[in-house]
Amino acid sequence: ARKIIIDTDPGQDDAVAILLALASPELDVLGLTAVAGNVPLALTEKNARKICELAGRPETRVFAGAVRPLTRPLVTAEHVHGRTGLDGPELPEPTMKLETQHAVDFIVETLMAEPEGTVTLCPLGPLTNIALAMIREPAIVPRIREIVLMGGGYFEQGNVTPSAEFNIYVDPQAADVVYRSGAPIVMMPLDVTHKALTTKARIERFRTMGTRVGTATAQLLDFFERFDEEKYGTDGGPLHDPCVIAYLLKPELFSGRQCNVQIETVSELTMGATVVDWWNITDGPRNALVMRDIDAEGFFALLTERIARL
Ligand code: BDR
Ligand code: CA
Fold first, then answer.
1. Which segment of the chain is annotated as a signal peptide (predicted)?
2. What is the ipTM for the molecules in this complex?
3. Active site annotation includes 240
């Protein structure tokens, strides 16, 4: 199975991504590392444990990481995810323990211990923990198999400001470190995730599974879609983070191209913008495989088939 570390700030869509990974035998989840993002760290690490228990996988290792971005004050998104970050279902307080090791140390130690080129990082939130690990031990960078992340946007530029997507906006300095690192990056931007809309009919498929996880997933998505439906008038909400895990399972669901990506870290107006050289106008290094399209029906078919297994 492919070894992955999921770096996450749950978040309803993070939660569904974690469920998808834990339901998939092709993936070996070495650990979940929590970061401050949608809500503060004390909630994201707890939410990560709630989801492991919901999946029936309390042995999964969960680590807490950075409490705030590298240089900027933390910006959160309770207006999207609710006060707990995981509003929707009534999930019990977790009983599984949080690991005592710091998430950044776990990422470094794992990449140094596992054979080179075997561990994939899956960041679903601000890139603070990943950047800190690279700064702490630069020798991890050539050992990373791939970084498959949710973040950014180009034709669909922003969701938190007109020009920036939330994960990159919250910690643009960290994103800059990661995009300059030279590690192979696969990027799932808003251009893809805004095509992965839940819709009422798709949520019904989870509700009618008749399982605890299916019901909880429907409740998570019911809550999550409200924000986009009210704000943008779409049928359903964008299932951002699960696109990362779906790519590992079925890359053929996605298409894009290799290009140069740079992060805006100076202008307050466009802070956190991902400047994607889609047309290869410059000769900058093609540091990311930037996705643009998704087979949304195939994606939801995969997701429902896997969630039904839990
Ligand atoms: C990203 O921001 C968070 O609110 C979601 O969990 C997702 O990772 C989308 O911009
Ligand atoms: Ca997230």
1. none
2. 0.99
3. yes
